[in-house]
Amino acid sequence: MTRKRKKNIGYLSVALQRRVWWRAVSLVLIGVLWFPVGGHCGEDTGQAVSAMPEPLDFAVVLPGSPLGREAARDVVNRLAVFMANATGRPVRGGFSNQPEEAARMIREQSPCWGVVSLGFYLEHARELDMTPVGSTRPGGASGDVWRVLVPAGASDESISGDYHGSMFYTPRSAGCLLLEGRHGGIVGLHGNSSPVLVLRQWEEQGPSGVVLDRLQYQAVQALPLRDSLLDRFEVSFSVDGLPASPVVWFGAGADSPDAGRVMAGLRSLHKAATRDAADDSSKRTRLGDVLDALRTRGFGPPDPALPGLLRRCGPQ
Q: For the chain, which domains are there?
């Protein structure tokens, strides 16, 4: 069956628009779980303070996340309870792996803050008025790396053919980050929530390569020797120095005390998860599962590279 090429790649350069087509595969969509937010999220309204504390609701948007519905709901509930205790404010939230639906719900429900993927930030930062106030730390590192894996002996400075990766659920920004300045032919970007599985089930007539982020590449390296893929594949090239998923503030108030409370709470999450892991009681909150779902081992300051990347790979 002939695959139809998607022609509207938006704000990629004209040269890249002629090279790139994309589609999404292997994704279980997670329903959006947010509740309406009644607060002003750190914005000074000039009105008297209400007797009821304003909520600090959040949105987690990680396109390509393989998390199922029940697991996502569990993560949201645990994070909400933890952040409510940490900030002393009501907190509710939601988790989505579907970028366009997530953008629609953020516009409608107006959460205060969120943890979003790099691609979602680049494609929607201006539209949703997102300001980075922090950053995740994948594997404890301060940034991310994308590695392009191809069959051994097939490495080339150029890039063409079909490539699978979880970052391709936001194909415009991912295409810009991966392909700008790199020569090659037509490239198909396939959003795939299980790129490591694509490697393990590789067939001769399969894709040209797979793109793995830092944590996914570490997962490949940790496979038992008998299952090692690194003898059959090699890194064709890597995109280094990428920001990790940012913590963002929606709308006005990114420099407010509320934003400071949120970041203080998030910074304490890793320490609490470490204590939690050492607790064998049946009442464990399993905060480590929350960090795993957010693909981080703590939180740091916003990445200074984000403004430049937004100018380069965001909507013009």
A: 14-27+141-242 (3.40.190), 58-140+244-313 (3.40.190.10)
